[in-house]
Design a protein that fits this description.
By secondary structure, the chain is α/β, with parallel strands linked by helices. Helices cover about 25% and strands about 25% of the residues.
């Protein structure tokens, strides 16, 4: 429970961190969200939506500290409790409670020490095989699906681990079928196995009594992207149709 008047520092600008911040602010806490990027939900919404979201959070009483990187914490001398979050620019954000909501990072030390190629995760091709080591596979949050051949027609847009459980389960199911075919002596059927389906962006919802937000579809598209301005297809991709509607005064953005 958060008592009114308490100072809470939330490290991380994702959905869980923001919902926690809004709930604490509703109870009267002084809340500061620290995130590494120009706006919260940096991997989920575009710049316009991020600006509207940040303004809406401030109206709900949540302070924002963007483009910030934490390097440590300070503790109270008497009881050892949290007293401040230290940032890499030499500043500190005082607080009585620190909430960590900063996601996960793949543990790739073992793979890297064995000589495997590593990016945002262990680099694998569209059949989940490690680069240059076809007998080693990686799935889930430790894997980044990106072929060593950039012209590979089966690969999708290169993305790192999603942090979601669904893609990992789908990769596990596909890989189990693939390895079963190899183990039963039917490598031809294994090679003919249809590749992993393209992951579709899900709907992300941020809910509180003070505001509501939903994100769906291709949130990385911009009106001035080449795909939106070119009359025909670009590199085999269809032209994007993008429309935006903004009402900053009332915190509305579509």
């Amino acid at each position: 429970a958060v008592d009114g008047g308490k100072r809470m520092v939330v490290l991380g600008g994702g959905v869980l961190g923001l919902e926690t911040s809004l709930a604490a602010a509703e109870e009267g806490a002084t809340v500061t969200v620290v995130h590494n990027g120009p706006h919260p939900l940096g991997r989920t919404i575009d710049r316009g939506g991020g600006a509207v979201l940040a303004a809406s959070l401030r109206r709900c009483g949540v302070r924002m500290a963007g483009n910030a990187r934490s390097i440590g914490v300070e503790h109270n001398a008497p009881d050892g409790g949290f007293s401040a979050l230290l940032l890499d620019d030499g500043s500190a954000i005082d607080g009585d409670l620190l909430v960590l909501s900063c996601g996960v990072r793949p543990r790739t030390e073992l793979a890297e020490g064995c000589g495997l190629s590593v990016g945002a995760g262990i680099l694998v091709d569209h059949r989940l095989r490690a680069h240059h080591e076809p007998h080693i596979f990686a799935i889930g949050d430790c894997a980044e699906v990106r072929c060593p051949d950039p012209a590979c027609g089966e690969c999708r847009t290169a993305k790192g681990p999603s942090g979601l459980v669904g893609p990992g389960w789908r990769q596990a199911e596909w890989l189990a079928e693939y390895l079963t075919l190899l183990a039963t002596g039917t490598p031809e059927e294994a090679d003919a196995l249809q590749g992993l389906p393209q992951e579709q962006a899900g709907v992300i919802v941020l809910k509180s009594r003070g505001m509501n937000m939903a994100v769906a579809g291709n949130n990385a598209a911009e009106p001035w992207d080449e795909e939106a301005l070119t009359a025909g297809a670009v590199n085999g991709r269809p032209r994007l149709q993008i429309a935006q509607w903004a009402d900053p005064e009332h915190g509305r953005y579509v």
